């Protein structure tokens, strides 16, 4: 099957959120499954044209009476080696990544290109590709699919073929099959009118995302950090860093925590990162607000970490509310890495400075540091208001770090929750995190308290109720056989066995989705 994957962004070149990571990895595993795959994307800020490439054609298009000419660039993705078709124009490239004008013109360029080089199926991702999917279906009569990565963002409303709809809804309407990125989220949004109506006449599925375990796990942390900074910053020069696995996570993770946070290794790294040329990578400068005091050197102070886009969806409001009270009750610390909405960025910076010593906020986009946050933290937090899938929880668990999250969407599908009544129903042998239901500070505070109780405070009490494989009960959170140590191992193994692109069969399900689209396109609606 010859497939064209349309994407607005792709890691590590033009990406900030998880969409770019999925668009890097999914084509790789579709190709491994025997498909002929090309990626089609814009040349944001000219970053992709900085790679070795060939200019194979020029495409002309007109927008509101103005003529535009684009170079068609053919190159290879730098880490997956998948063929990329990129449309480049200096003025077009300089527009904001999410400017709707880009994707109005992008749709016509896709049609022009695929008119010359047809494929068996066109797969569009996110609202930005919705109009392109509609036009590929209508103008080229090609089978199409549309993937909803976040239905809250639909793009601008336009008129096309007598329909007045946002980009995303146009893509769904004209697609031959569509999906979203987790089974639970597929059910959560199925009652939305435009999704419900289309799901009755064409294939609709929830296919969970994954991560590439070959390149993203705790045993590859050094290589990943070097790759994400284009081999310019060796993390070992700034603080203790080494690869580790499920069996030695309890030994290595505390050392990374002390070195990068207590000994200020992270500050040295940020200074070097900010001075680095970022033309060949995705990233921004980072500003540091607040710092963590030296309690980590004196004793094991629980560290919670957050990595994510600074948007309303991600739950930063209830995080600030919850930790403002938790700091009064518990000796804990929090480190945040975020970039996005300026108002939320300011709130996080003010929060860190108000609780200086307990909170460090890293405001910026620096993917190498995400690995350090995962590796350093005892728990990560993803208290999202909604979450179609989410990759943070998978990435955290791949670094042997359990996750506190809301029981929604892909978070529910990917985290095995510690039972609420742990003494009567212990599941330390399988739990990879804690799920809570209500979106408020009370729910989040309960989950954090539950985590502290059973991985820090009440270890000896747990020992009274559980049988350990050795004679002595663990006394430290990091001791072998402790609840936290067991959960570290569970996290790593769960991601490898169930959540990696290598093993979760999601690439096979996408291939089936494309087959369903071709069938529907050829023989009519279901």
Automatic annotation (TrEMBL):
Q: Which residues form the signal peptide?
A: none
Keyword set includes NADP: no
Q: Where in the numbering of this chain does the Glycosyl transferase family domain appear? A: 296-439
Q: Per the database record, which ranges form the Starch synthase catalytic domain?
A: 3-190
Q: Which UniProt keywords apply?
A: Glycosyltransferase, Transferase
GO MF entry, a single one: glycosyltransferase activity
> What name appears for this protein in its UniProt entry?
Glycosyl transferase group 1
Originating species: Methanococcus aeolicus (strain ATCC BAA-1280 / DSM 17508 / OCM 812 / Nankai-3)
């Amino acid at each position: 099957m010859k497939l064209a994957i349309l994407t607005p962004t792709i890691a590590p070149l033009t990406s900030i959120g998880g969409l770019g990571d999925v668009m890097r990895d999914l084509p790789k595993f579709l190709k491994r499954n025997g498909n002929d795959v090309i990626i089609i994307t814009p040349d944001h800020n000219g970053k992709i044209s900085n790679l070795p490439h060939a200019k194979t054609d020029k495409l002309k298009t007109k927008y509101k009476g103005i003529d535009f000419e684009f170079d068609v660039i053919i190159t290879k993705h730098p880490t997956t080696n998948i063929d990329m078709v990129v449309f480049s124009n200096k003025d077009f490239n300089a527009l904001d990544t999410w400017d709707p004008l880009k994707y109005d013109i992008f749709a016509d360029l896709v049609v022009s290109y695929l008119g010359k080089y047809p494929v068996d199926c066109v797969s569009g991702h996110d609202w930005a590709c919705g109009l392109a999917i509609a036009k590929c279906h209508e103008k080229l009569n090609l089978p199409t699919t549309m993937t909803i990565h976040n239905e809250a963002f639909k793009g601008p409303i336009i008129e096309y073929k007598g329909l007045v709809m946002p980009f995303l809804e146009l893509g769904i309407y004209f697609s031959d099959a569509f999906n979203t990125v987790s089974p639970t989220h597929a059910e959560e949004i199925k009652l939305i009118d435009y999704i419900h109506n289309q799901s009755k006449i064409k294939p609709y599925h929830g296919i969970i995302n994954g991560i590439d375990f070959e390149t993203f796990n705790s045993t590859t942390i050094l290589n990943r950090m070097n790759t994400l900074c284009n081999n310019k910053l060796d993390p070992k020069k700034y603080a203790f860093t080494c690869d580790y696995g499920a069996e030695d996570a309890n030994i290595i993770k505390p050392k990374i925590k002390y070195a990068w946070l207590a000994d200020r290794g992270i500050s040295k790294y940020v200074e070097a990162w900010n001075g680095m040329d970022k033309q060949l990578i995705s990233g921004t400068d980072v500003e540091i607000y607040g710092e963590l005091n030296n309690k980590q050197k004196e004793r094991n102070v629980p560290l919670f970490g957050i990595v994510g886009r600074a948007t309303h969806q991600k739950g930063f409001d209830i995080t600030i509310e919850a930790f403002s009270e938790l700091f009064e009750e518990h000796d804990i610390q929090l480190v945040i890495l975020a970039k996005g909405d300026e108002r939320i960025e300011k709130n996080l910076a003010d929060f860190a400075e108000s609780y200086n010593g307990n909170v460090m906020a890293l405001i910026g986009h620096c993917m190498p540091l995400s690995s350090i946050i995962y590796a350093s933290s005892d728990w990560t937090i993803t208290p999202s208001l909604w979450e179609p899938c989410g990759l943070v929880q998978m990435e955290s668990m791949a670094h042997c770090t359990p996750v506190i999250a809301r029981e929604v969407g892909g978070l529910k599908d990917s985290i095995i929750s510690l039972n609420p009544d742990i003494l009567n129903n212990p599941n330390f042998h399988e739990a990879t995190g804690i799920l809570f239901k209500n979106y408020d500070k009370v729910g989040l505070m309960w989950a954090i308290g539950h985590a502290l109780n059973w991985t820090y405070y009440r270890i000896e009490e747990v020992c009274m109720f559980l049988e350990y494989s050795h004679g002595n009960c663990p006394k430290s959170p990091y001791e072998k056989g402790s609840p936290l140590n067991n959960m570290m191992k569970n996290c790593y193994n769960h991601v490898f066995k169930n959540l990696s692109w290598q093993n979760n069969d999601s690439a096979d399900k996408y291939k089936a989705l494309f087959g369903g689209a071709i069938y529907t396109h050829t023989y009519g609606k279901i």
